[in-house]
């Protein structure tokens, strides 16, 4: 597997979620409401990663990455809700849930690593 940068992965993840939300928006009000929550949290992951990379300081970088991590966890929560309520089948959502889990682990590792590095 080719290693991809976190900014590329979060962008591609957001695109996949946007496509999922377009499908959900054709459903009932409950699915649309969940869709809007997922859309907001999933697209926020990449936006905060981008902001972190332009951070003015190490604490700013850690803060933005921490927000991205929280948004990734929230996105995973909403994806699990979609699956548990049968709005989307487990097969159709497995890959996107897997990517959300991987992004969560990667972001957590980035934060731990940044906290351990001496301030420059």
Draw up the topology in text.
Elements (H helix, E strand, L loop, with lengths): L5 H19 L4 H25 L4 H27 L5 H27 L4
Explain briefly what this protein structure is.
By secondary structure, this protein is an all-alpha fold.
What features would you describe in this structure?
The chain is mainly alpha-helical and 120 residues long. The protein has a single domain (6-116), classed as de novo design (two linked rop proteins) (Up-down Bundle). It is built from 4 helices and no strands. The chain has helices spanning 6-24, 29-53, 58-84, 90-116. Helix 1 (6-24) packs antiparallel against helix 2 (29-53) and helix 2 runs antiparallel to helix 3. It is elongated, with a radius of gyration of 15 Å. It starts with 5 loop residues before the first helix and ends with a helix. The model has no long low-confidence stretch (mean pLDDT 93).
């Amino acid at each position: 597997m080719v290693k991809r940068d976190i900014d590329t992965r979060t962008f591609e993840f957001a695109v996949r979620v946007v496509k999922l939300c377009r499908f959900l928006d054709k459903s009932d009000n409950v699915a649309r409401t969940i869709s809007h929550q997922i859309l907001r949290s999933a697209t926020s992951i990449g936006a905060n990663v981008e902001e972190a990379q332009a951070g003015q300081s190490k604490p700013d970088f850690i803060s933005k990455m921490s927000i991205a991590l929280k948004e990734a966890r929230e996105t995973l929560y909403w994806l699990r809700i979609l699956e548990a309520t049968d709005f989307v089948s487990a097969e159709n959502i497995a890959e996107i849930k897997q990517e959300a889990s991987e992004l969560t682990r990667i972001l957590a590792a980035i934060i731990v690593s940044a906290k351990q590095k001496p301030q420059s």
